[in-house]
Amino acid sequence: MRLFEGLKRPALSIAITACLSFPALAELSICNRLTVTGNAEYPPILWRDQNNPGQLTGLAIELLELALMDTGITVDAKDRGVWARALQEAKHGEVDMLAGAFLTEERQAYMDYIVPQFSDVPSVVWTKKGKEFDYQKWEDLLELRGGTLINNSFGQDFDSYSKKNLAILTSATAERSFAMLLAERFDYVLYELYQGLAILESAGLKGQVTPLESPISVEGLYFTFSKKSGCNSEALRRHLSERVAQLSEFGTFERLFDKHMQEWLKQQQHQGVTPEN
Question: For the chain, what is the total number of helices (H) and then of strands (E)?
């Protein structure tokens, strides 16, 4: 089943290649390979590659490879486990980059963000079917029990508000949060719309959990460099910023979205599993 019928998958325009000029590797970085990780439960943007254990794949990886095309720099997308560990490895320079992170003040202390963002991601309130409630503003979540993925961010403003005002418990995986929602241990789960739909579709739970209409936030998703990475250079960051902007102008994210959604669903069906950490 296609989750987003309106998103087409035409071939990428060869104009992308024609319009890009490529500097020499030596001008960009001392590295010829970047070790990249991220949230392995983020299909179709990022997920564990069932065909290559220990590796990640997805739309974000293809975008990064396109941005680095003909520079001589390759991408090694590693599965580092849960999202919290991926963040810690970026913080300590154990990986070079994250392939998708929201912007927060805390993360800016240990990562350099590649601007502009490569996508905007709506995050929504998920409820058990039949247990929906009226949600229009953050205050509507007061007095309710919420759940989400550990170390997940929904933007600086919401993160600050929720920390002070909301009762939200975290789980190691999105699936665990949804399971607790179905068991009515939570009144709602906060999670990104696209990734939530994909995970529920694969798990056969799409009809049991529903997203409320109004998003809690719409946040930019960025490539980031660890400040402690030896591959992090001003020249390479500038190069990636230019390429991400050009790829965005060509609508590359939208062109690739359905391709990677279908590939993720195909892998899950082939393996007979749902995504877990």
Answer: 10, 13
